[in-house]
Design a protein that fits this description.
Elements lengths: L1 H8 L11 H16 L17 H40 L2 H16 L1 H17 L2 H31 L4 H13 L2 H12 L3 H25 L3 H9 L4 H29 L2 H6 L6 H10 L3 H31 L3 H28 L16 H13 L1 H26 L11 H21 L2 H16 L6 H16 L1 H16 L3 H31 L1 H16 L6 H8 L3 H12 L1 H12 L3 H9 L4 H12 L1 H17 L1 H4 L7 H11 L2 H31 L1
Helix pairs in contact: 2-20, 3-6, 3-8, 3-32, 4-5, 4-14, 4-15, 5-14, 6-9, 6-11, 7-9, 7-32, 8-9, 8-31, 8-32, 9-11, 10-11, 11-14, 13-14, 17-19, 17-22, 18-19, 20-21, 21-32, 22-23, 22-25, 22-26, 22-29, 22-31, 23-26, 24-25, 25-29, 26-29, 27-28, 29-32, 31-32
Subcellular location: Cell membrane
Family: Belongs to the binding-protein-dependent transport system permease family.
Protein name: ABC transporter permease
Length: 696
């Protein structure tokens, strides 16, 4: 075994592949632009005189359209407001013992005794915390938004399934709906429907529709052809075959879509509170954050997290129960038992209201009325350990955020780093980068060498100091080589739209903030994923943590970041990382656990150490799955931009939020589409890279 071990440990020399001519030309153009940017500052900063008034044109069109259609939408708003308030009154009227009994029965039917116990504990916390009426108001919004999203999503999914020509248009619309920040399409909704809870309902319904559409199409597409043929041979008409054969077969996947739709609607409760929510949990969280009452923020945010986890487990439990396929007798028996328990809950509710018609049966003072001590304790904790939190924030700000934004050349000044880069230091930096590129070029090929050269240049100039023509051409060339001409043209068109609207500075701020967040998530989340893949105990510990992070609404992540680090870009970075760290943990663990066992055994028999097995066998084989995790991490980071704008960023998310405050539909739409463009471009690039690796 000695010889094979030695041969495994010695890395084979890879034949040096010459760099393609376009990349060499782009490197030369980059050097030329960096030399000339002092004399031609427009190479870095796009002049305002060159921008186009596209936002004003969109506003003019919007004003004309809104004037014509506004009465019809206001009538629809009034029609939706009545059932929404009716549902809220019914849920608030129901006594909490009856609600607990009904939810426990549903939990027991869905996933067993453990979920029933969790449901009782979660509802007890909500009751004792003093947020029971607010929670019922939140559920009234979800209970109305989810059916709208489910029916609309199912109809669109069926349409996409039966019409292949319409599917690309539908998928493109879904990409926009899922990537455009909610703040962006709140502006036209406010203009059409006015200010009030109905706007939050409609925004939640729009945001929650795409998961149902995608899962409906996926479920119907995966119906086996032999099942469809069996239905036809049984004499079914096309309608009977669809409703009695195809839909029941696709129902498990459709129920997964219902689960994701419900979670998406619940995640919008705080956004709904911003644009006209009533007394619900979202409004409580938002009010507590504005008052810097961190104790109440944590209590109310925990209510949303518990509701999200409970609803997630309930809906996914019913989907799994459908997937296992119980017999008809068992289904009827469990249905009868469930109906009996729900009937008892209804009878209990009526009896309680008959005996105590004027009593709320709620605690006189919930925990939220007694959090003054918690607020003082948290403020004292922040004050006593301010040296640690300030040191951590300043260290990341001055050593990572600023170098990425303005570059080493801008950060190395006495006011920031305490010294200035001398010409000798600049030359030494260039020599180190070039030597690293030469070593990689000699040992591997031109691709890692080019990556190091780009990273070294960006680190020196910063994102703000990098010439925009080179950036656009570089991304277009990458898109062309990875996915073809169509994606390259899409990249050029998207960046030019951002450029001519004067949003290039905001784009750069978004890019460097998301880049750092994604890199840190990959490092930290990837390490945790590897740990979970090798340790069952770590996997059991991380699973509930990831579940909680994945089900919490985005606003909740701002609470701890804002409490410990105050307003600023570092706070936004922490919030983005908390939201985006789950995909690398899950996908790295999943990819490593599902590597072929025979390959791992062969590598270990060659004498490889555990580290060599991990880095030279398992991770390369799991790379397609890890790349999907990278895709989801980027999507999550970009989706948090508009939320992170609330804590002081100056990126595209801030542009969307400012446009919402001014009711500027044109700028809000363009800034929202810019974020959607970045998300779609990153998604298509990674998908094409994974597909290309799979074919090779």
């Amino acid at each position: 075994m000695t010889a094979p071990a030695a041969s495994f440990r010695s890395s084979p020399m890879v034949a040096m592949e010459p760099a393609p001519l376009p990349w060499c030309a782009l490197i030369a153009l980059t050097a030329l632009c960096l030399v000339l940017k002092t004399d031609f500052p427009w190479l870095v900063t796009f002049p305002k005189e060159w921008t186009l008034p596209l936002a004003a044109g969109v506003n003019a069109v919007t004003d004309a359209v809104v004037t014509v259609v506004q009465p019809a939408f206001r009538a629809l708003s009034a029609a939706l407001e009545a059932p929404m308030r009716g549902a809220r009154l019914v849920l608030v009227w129901l006594p909490w013992p009856a609600v607990m009994l009904a939810v426990a029965a549903l939990s027991l039917k869905s996933s067993g005794i453990r979920l029933a116990v969790f449901a009782l504990l979660a509802l007890t916390y909500i009751l004792l915390a003093g947020y029971w009426p607010q929670s019922m108001s939140t559920l009234s919004l979800v209970l109305l938004a989810v059916p709208i999203s489910t029916v609309l999503g199912f109809a669109l999914g069926v349409l996409g399934h039966i019409s292949p020509r319409l599917r690309p248009v539908l998928l493109g619309a879904l990409d926009l709906m899922q990537t455009v920040p909610a703040f962006a399409y709140l502006i036209p909704l406010l203009l059409l429907f006015g200010f009030g809870p109905v706007v939050g309902l409609i925004a939640s319904a729009i945001y929650a529709t795409p998961p149902m559409v995608r899962n409906t199409m996926l479920g119907l597409d995966r119906v086996p052809s032999d099942i469809s043929e069996a239905g036809l041979m049984s004499g079914c008409t096309r309608r009977q075959q669809f409703w009695h054969v195809e839909v029941p077969t696709a129902l498990p996947q459709i129920l997964v879509g219902f689960n994701q739709t419900t979670m998406a609607a619940l995640s919008m409760v705080i956004v709904a509170a911003i644009i006209g929510g009533f007394e619900d949990i979202g409004w409580e969280v938002l009010s507590s954050m504005r008052k810097a009452e961190f104790g109440q923020s944590i209590l109310s945010g925990l209510v949303i997290a518990l509701l999200a986890i409970l609803i997630d487990r309930l809906t996914i439990g019913f989907a799994r129960a459908r997937l296992t396929g119980p017999t008809a007798a068992m289904t009827w028996m469990t249905f009868r038992r469930l109906a009996i328990v729900l009937g008892l809950a209804a009878a209990l509710a009526i009896a309680i209201r008959f005996l105590w018609p004027d009593e709320t049966l709620l605690p006189a003072t919930g925990l939220r009325m007694q959090v003054g001590g918690i607020n003082q304790w948290l403020l004292g904790l922040v004050r006593d350990y301010a040296w640690f939190f300030d040191g951590l924030r300043n260290g990341v700000l001055y050593c990572l955020l600023l170098p990425l934004r303005i570059g080493i050349s801008g950060a190395a000044v006495p006011a920031i780093w305490g010294f200035t880069f001398s010409p000798t230091a600049n030359a030494a930096y260039a020599v180190v980068v070039l030597l690293a590129c030469a070593l990689l070029l000699h040992r591997f090929n031109w691709r890692p060498a080019l990556a190091v050269l780009v990273a070294g240049t960006l680190l020196y100039t910063g994102f703000l100091g990098f010439p925009w023509p080179v950036f656009i051409l570089g991304i277009a060339l990458l898109a062309f080589q990875v996915a073809g001409l169509r994606l390259a043209l899409f990249a050029v068109a998207g960046f030019l739209l951002i450029l001519v609207n004067g949003l290039w500075g905001a784009l750069v701020q978004s890019l460097y903030l998301c880049t750092l967040a994604v890199l840190l998530c990959l490092v930290i989340g990837g390490a945790l994923g590897v740990w979970a893949a090798y340790s069952e105990r770590a996997s059991r510990i991380l699973k509930p943590v990831c579940d909680a992070l994945q089900t919490m609404p985005q606003f909740v992540f701002l609470i701890p970041a804002l409490m410990f680090f105050k307003v600023g870009e570092f706070t936004a970075l922490i919030a983005i990382m908390l939201y985006a760290i789950v995909p690398p943990i899950r996908y790295v663990e999943h990819g490593l656990r599902h590597v072929r066992a025979d390959v791992v055994e062969a590598v270990e028999q060659m004498g490889a150490t555990q580290a060599q097995t991990l880095f030279q066998a398992k991770l390369p084989l799991a790379l397609p799955v890890v790349m999907l995790g990278l895709n989801q991490t980027i999507m999550a980071a970009l989706s948090m931009l508009a939320i992170a704008a609330l804590v002081g960023t100056r990126d595209l998310g801030q542009a969307v939020y400012v446009a919402l405050g001014k009711a500027d539909a044109g700028m809000g739409l363009i800034a929202g589409l810019s974020i959607a463009f970045l998300a779609i471009l990153a998604d298509r690039l990674i998908q094409a890279a994974v597909a290309g690796r799979a074919t090779t």
